[in-house]
Amino acid sequence: MLTIRALLPHVQIAGGVRRFLELGNEFVRRGHHYAVFKPDVTPPDWFKSGFHFRPLDTLNAHPYDVTLCGDVGLLHLLANAPGKLRALVAIGDRYASKYQVFLRDHPDTLVIGNSSAWVEYLPGVKGVAIPGGVNLQQFQPGPRRPGPFTISVVGRIDKKREAIPVVLEAFRRLGWKDARVLAVTDEFKRLPWRFFSQRRRIEQVSGRDQDELVQHYRDSDVLVTMERTAGWSNPAAEAMACGVPVICTKCGTQDFADASTALVVPVDDVEALMGALRDVREKPAEAQVRVQEGLKRIRAYEWGRVAEGMLRVFEGFLAEAGGPMLGAKAES
Hints:
The strands form 2 sheets. The chain has a 7-stranded parallel beta sheet. It folds into 2 domains: 3-133 and 302-320, Glycogen Phosphorylase B (Rossmann fold, 3-Layer(aba) Sandwich), CATH 3.40.50.2000; 149-300, Glycogen Phosphorylase B (Rossmann fold, 3-Layer(aba) Sandwich), CATH 3.40.50. It is an alpha/beta fold. It has 10 helices and 13 strands. The mean pLDDT is 94.
């Protein structure tokens, strides 16, 4: 049994948070001890977890075999966490400069990239790519509820890196009066004024309830993610697993999205997005071919496989360090 912990700033709905929660359940299923250390011990109200939550101020009370962290605000705690293996999980290029500073000062840290693209923003750094995952028991094809042609986006309208206004602009220019945009979010926001005339066809819904989140994907005719920066795109992976056509940028999708599984467009290119949306709507047979290829591709990123890959890496490094701390006591 390994003792493994992750350091998190919170457990609100976020792709990086989901990664550590999903992995925790998989580690526990395989007989390992796992805990999340965060400012308080309140568990998430949107995710069913089978492990412990501990306060960050007790981090030094017990050594763990492995300590994981991707949040730049907590790297100083990772640096001094007692245990045999400290791992920086590189979750995106927007943190590259701070990761580089930390690794310069702590070169013995294991680096785990959550996509194969990590080598592009941390060149010369030694590490291993273990791409993100998707819960295939949760996200899978199912019946679509009746409704108009639906373009779905996931995230907050005001979050710059998610670039949802780019999708809204493409929708405005297309002028489709028999279609809608479904914005799945954890925080409703006022629409930018330039989309006021489309307000009746732009609907914001909550993605907190996980069963409803799955149904929102299933109700979609296409999922669009125009992210400007991302380590691993949960919305694109989850929609692909639900059998929904995907339009995306290369940000966070390089491991599973290409011409055979999705329509990949340049960042901030409204014209290219409009063309891709027309393609999905006017050529449904071709879109379904990509859907079927996507369903095959995404199976390789089931969370259980991701967890097993990480465990093999941990066990290899710990073997070199003399093995896990057998008999070491983690909190019960």
